[in-house]
Design a protein that fits this description.
Helix content: over 70%
Order of helices and strands: HHHHHHHHHHHHHHHHHHHEEHH
Radius of gyration: 43 Å
Distance between the termini: 83 Å
Largest sheet: 2 strands, antiparallel
Number of strands: 2
Oligomer: single chain
C-alpha cells in the first residue's frame, strides 16, 4: 500500500472511530450515521458510513442486520463500478453468512471477494484474511484438502507482505492449521502448530489469542486422554481469561472444556454442571454450532454414565443439526455416538444404520488425512523458505525500525518543548495565584479589623438589655462589616434609639455607620437636641458636611 493510500485509509478509519466514539449510545450512533448517509452524495463516503453501521451491529452480534448492510454496500459498489469496494462488501457478506452457518452462500462470496482482491497488487492482509476464512469454511464442511490449500495460499501471501499485521495473521494461520490437523486426528501435529502459534501470540502480547491457543492445547490433551494435563492447562487459562476486558465471550468455551476435564478427573457433578453452563451460555447467544458441541460432549458423558435415553436424545439432536449446517466432523462423531447408544439399547437396526454412516465418513476423512500429511510436508518446506525470506527482509525491517526510532526521538523532543511551554504557563499562573492569595489575606485581615472596630462602636446586647429588657438585636451583615447600625441613649426621662440603614454595603457602608454614630452622639449627647425632626435635620447637615456633598454631586447618602 503506498503512502497516499495509507494516509487515506487512516483518515477514513479515524473518521469512523470519531463517529463511533463521539456518540453516547449505539442507537444515537445509528441515527447519526444514517443522517450522514442521506446527506452525502459521495458513494465512497456512503460506503464507509455503512461500514461504520456494520461495525456497530457487529458489536451487538446482530448478524441479520450485518448481512443487510453488507448487501447494501455491495449494491453501492456495483453501481459505482469500484472493484475494491466490491471486494470489501463481498468479504463482509461472506463473513456474516459464515457466522450465520449459511456455508454455501459464504463459500460463493468468499471466492468472489478473493477474485476481486486479486486484481490488486497490494492488500495482502485483506487477501490473506479472505483465504484464511475460506480455509476455515472448507475445513468445517469436511473438505480438509481444500482448506489446507487455502491456508498455504494465505501463508504465501503474508510472506510477501510487509504490512504491520503480517506476524499476527501468520500466527492465526498456524492456529487454524492446528485445528484442521486436530479434526483429522493428527493430534501431535496439531499440538506442534498450536505451540508455534502460542509462541508468536505471546511475543505480540496478544492475550486474547493466547487464551484461544491454550484452550485448543487443552482440548488436544483431552482427545489424547491426558486428563490431568488438560485440567492443569484449562485451570491455568482461567487466570488469563480474567485479565481480558471482555471475558464473557470466552465463558461458554472455557466452562465446557473445564467441565469435560473435571468429569474425566473424577469430579463428575462439578464437570456436568460446568458443561451445562457452557450449553446455556451458547443457547442464550443463539450460537448453534457451539451449542451442538456442548450437546455432543454432554451426550458422551451421559453415555458413559449409562443414561442412555438422555444420551440418545442429545446425540440425535446434535446429529440432525450437524447435517443441517453441513459439519462433516461433527456428523461423524454423532453417528459414532448413536451407533454405540443404540447398540447398548439393543436396537440393532438403528445401531447398524449409524455404524454404516460412521464408517463411510471415517473412510472419507481418513483418505483426506493421508493427503493432509503430504501437504504438511510441503508446509515444512515453506517454513524453510520463510526463514530465508526473513533474512532478506531483516535489513528492510531494520530501516523501518530506524525510522520509528527517529520518529520517537522527534516526537519526544516536541513533547519536551510543549511540556516546557505548559510549565512556564503553570509557573506564571502559580505566581499570580500567590499574589492574589496574599492580597486577599490582607483585605480579609483589614475587614476583620474593621469588623472589630464596628463592633466596639455599637452598644453590646448585654448593655442594651440593662436599658430595656424587652429589646434584642438582629444584625446580619451581607459582608464582614455592616452598612446598617443601631444607636441608643438613655436620658433621665426617655430612652432614645435609632435603627439606621446607610447607603452601601461592606466597607463603604461601614464608614457611613461610623459617621452616623459619631453625628448622633454629637447631636443628642453633646448638643442635647431631643426632637426627632431636629435630630434628623442636623444629621443630614452633618453627613453633607462630612462628605463634602456641596462640592461632589456624586456622593450620596
Amino acid at each position: 500500500m503506498n503512502k497516499a493510500g495509507l494516509r487515506n485509509t487512516i483518515i477514513r478509519l479515524l473518521s469512523i472511530v470519531f463517529i463511533l466514539f463521539s456518540i453516547k449510545t449505539n442507537t444515537q450512533a445509528i441515527d447519526s450515521i444514517q443522517s450522514l448517509i442521506y446527506e452525502t452524495n459521495s458513494t465512497e463516503k456512503k460506503f464507509e458510513l455503512y461500514e461504520a453501521l456494520f461495525k456497530i451491529y457487529s458489536s451487538n452480534n446482530e448478524l441479520e442486520k450485518m448481512l443487510e448492510i453488507a448487501e447494501v454496500q455491495y449494491a453501492l459498489a456495483i453501481d459505482y463500478k469500484d472493484i475494491l469496494l466490491e471486494a470489501k462488501a463481498l468479504r463482509n457478506i461472506a463473513n456474516t453468512a459464515y457466522s450465520l452457518n449459511r456455508f454455501k452462500l459464504a463459500e460463493v462470496k468468499f471466492e468472489k471477494a478473493l477474485a476481486a482482491f486479486n486484481k490488486f497488487k497490494d492488500y495482502h492482509n485483506e487477501k490473506a484474511s479472505v483465504l484464511n476464512n475460506l480455509a476455515n469454511l472448507k475445513s468445517r464442511m469436511g473438505d480438509y484438502i481444500s482448506g489446507l490449500d487455502y491456508y498455504h495460499q494465505a501463508y504465501d501471501v503474508l510472506l510477501s507482505s510487509k504490512e504491520n499485521k503480517r506476524k499476527k495473521q501468520i500466527a492465526i494461520i498456524l492456529l487454524n492449521l492446528g485445528v484442521t490437523y486436530s479434526d483429522v486426528g493428527l493430534t501431535d501435529d496439531a499440538l506442534l502448530y498450536y505451540e508455534k502459534a502460542l509462541s508468536m501470540f505471546q511475543k505480540e502480547n496478544n492475550l486474547k489469542l493466547v487464551v484461544f491457543c491454550l484452550n485448543n492445547i487443552g482440548s488436544i490433551y483431552l482427545s489424547q486422554k491426558q486428563y490431568k494435563k488438560a485440567l492443569f492447562t484449562f485451570e491455568g487459562n482461567e487466570k488469563k481469561i480474567s485479565e481480558l476486558k471482555d471475558e464473557s465471550q470466552y465463558e461458554g468455551l472455557y466452562k465446557l472444556n473445564l467441565g469435560v476435564a473435571y468429569w474425566h478427573n473424577g469430579q463428575k457433578k462439578k464437570g456436568l454442571k460446568y458443561m451445562e453452563f457452557g450449553k446455556a451460555f451458547y443457547e442464550k447467544r443463539n450460537d448453534e454450532v457451539s451449542s451442538l458441541g456442548c450437546d455432543l460432549e454432554i451426550a458422551k458423558v451421559k453415555l458413559l454414565e449409562g443414561s442412555l435415553k438422555e444420551a440418545r436424545d442429545l446425540m440425535y439432536k446434535s446429529y440432525k443439526k450437524s447435517i443441517e449446517i453441513g459439519l462433516a466432523e461433527e456428523t461423524k462423531k454423532t453417528s459414532e455416538g448413536l451407533q454405540k447408544i443404540y447398540k447398548q439399547l439393543g436396537i440393532l437396526d438403528s445401531a447398524y444404520k449409524y455404524q454404516h454412516i460412521y464408517i463411510n465418513l471415517k473412510d472419507s476423512l481418513s483418505g483426506e488425512e493421508m493427503r493432509s500429511k503430504l501437504i504438511k510436508l510441503s508446509l515444512n518446506d515453506k517454513f524453510k523458505k520463510a526463514d530465508q525470506l526473513r533474512q532478506t527482509q531483516h535489513e528492510a525491517e531494520m530501516n523501518e525500525q530506524k525510522f520509528i526510532n527517529w520518529f520517537i526521538i522527534i516526537f519526544s523532543f516536541l513533547i519536551m518543548i510543549f511540556s516546557g511551554f505548559i510549565y512556564v504557563i503553570y509557573r506564571d499562573k502559580r505566581k499570580s495565584h500567590i499574589i492574589i492569595t496574599k492580597q486577599k489575606e490582607a483585605i480579609v485581615d483589614s475587614l476583620n479589623y474593621a469588623q472589630r472596630i464596628q463592633s466596639a462602636i455599637l452598644i453590646s446586647e448585654e448593655q442594651l438589655k440593662k436599658l430595656w429588657k424587652e429589646l434584642f438585636v438582629f444584625l446580619k451583615p451581607r459582608d464582614l462589616v455592616s452598612g446598617d447600625f443601631y444607636w441608643i441613649h438613655k436620658t433621665e426621662e426617655h430612652i432614645m434609639f435609632a435603627v439606621v440603614d446607610c447607603v452601601g454595603h461592606g466597607v463603604p457602608g461601614a464608614f457611613m455607620t461610623m459617621i452616623g454614630n459619631t453625628l448622633l452622639n454629637d447631636i443628642v449627647i453633646e448638643r442635647d437636641i431631643k426632637e426627632p425632626g431636629e435630630i434628623l435635620k442636623e444629621l443630614h447637615k452633618g453627613v453633607v458636611k462630612g462628605l463634602r456633598q456641596e462640592k461632589d454631586s456624586k456622593a450620596v447618602d
